[in-house]
Amino acid sequence: MSHQFNLNERSQNILKATIQHYIATAEPVGSKTLVEEYGFNISSATIRNIMGRLEEAGLLFQPHTSAGRIPSDWGYRIYVDRLINPDEISSKQLEQSLHQKLQWERVSFEHLLQRATKILAALSGYIALITFPQNPSDSLRHLQLVYLPSGQIMLVIVTDSYQTQSVLVESSLLNTEQEPLDEELIESELQILSNFLNQKLKGQTLMQITSLDWDKIDREFVQYTGFIKIIAQELHRLVKPNNSTPIVIHGVAEVLRQPEFSQLQQVQTLLYLLEEKQEQLFPVIFTLPELAGNSKKVKIKIGSENPLEPMRICTLVAANYYQDDTPVGSVGIIGPTRMLYQNAIALVEITADYLSEALS
Fold first, then answer.
1. Alpha-carbon span 273 to 256, nearest angstrom
2. Domain stops at, among 238, 271, 302
3. Cβ proximity of 171 and 157 under 8 Å
4. Containing structural domain, residue 184
5. What is the CATH number of the domain that holds 17?
C-alpha cells in the first residue's frame, strides 16, 4: 500500500463523508447513502467507482462482500492528517466548560488530576488517562566523552538522583561518521567538547535537557556540528521517564457501550492492560518531545500504529503537560478507531494546557 497516494478533491470529499458517516452510525457506508445524505452532484455509480479506488488504495475496506465500506486505520490516518481542521467554536466551549468545572486554586494537584480525568471521560465518552507528574529532579552532575581504542566514542553521564539519594552512572557508545584522526588530537578535542557541554548542562534536570534548544548549542560550537546532534539524541534516549508513575484512569464504563468493544476477550485484554500493566502503558502515553522541536503537540496513534496488542482496536490521542518548559506528564484519551477525532484532539490539547498552567 503506497503512503504517497494522492487523492483528488472529489476522492477526498468521498473519503471524508464515508468516515464521518461511519463515525456517526457504526454502519458500513454505501454509495446510495452518500448520494442521499451528502448531496454529491454525481451518480451513485461514479461514487461506487471512487469508493472502489479508495479500497484499492487501502483507505476503505468491505467487512462483508455485500456490505458497504468502512475506513481502515490508514484511511483514518489520512482523515486526521489531511481532511479535518480544529473546530474553534467547540474548542472555546470545551475550554470554558473545563475552566468552570476545575478550579485548581482551591485543590491539591492530585485532586485536580482526578477531577480533570473524570471530566475528560465524561466530555469525550471515552477512556481518559492522565499520568501523575514525573519527578523532574534527577540532574546532570557530569558528562564525559571518552575515546576508545576501537575508534568509537563513549558517552558517560553521571546524575544525582534525589529520589534515591544516590549518584547514577550511565554510558553508551556513539558511532560517528568522522574519519579517524590522530588519537591525542581526538582526546584533547573530546575534552574541550566535554568541558563545553558540562558548562551548558551541569545542574540541569534530565527532563530539562530533552527540551533544550540543541540547534543553538550546535551553533555555539560550530566545528562539532553533527556530533553534538548525535550526543543530543543519545542523551534523549538515555533519559528514561519513570514508568512506575501512577496513571489516573476514568471512563471505562462509557467506552464499553461502543459496538467495537462487544467482544469480551478484547475488552478483558484492554482492561488488564489498564489495571495491571500500567508500566507498559506509561511509555506509550508519555513520550518526550522529538528533538526536531517542531513535533506536533497532540500525538495520535490509530489502531495498528499502537505498539501494544490490546490497544490495536483503539485510537490513542495524547499530549504532554509541562512544568515551565519541561514535559512532566501526559493527558490521553483511548477510544475506538471510530472516534470523534476533532472533539478528542481539542479536549486533550485543552486539558494539557490547563494542567501546564496549573503547574507553572
1. 15
2. 238
3. yes
4. 139-238
5. 1.10.10.10
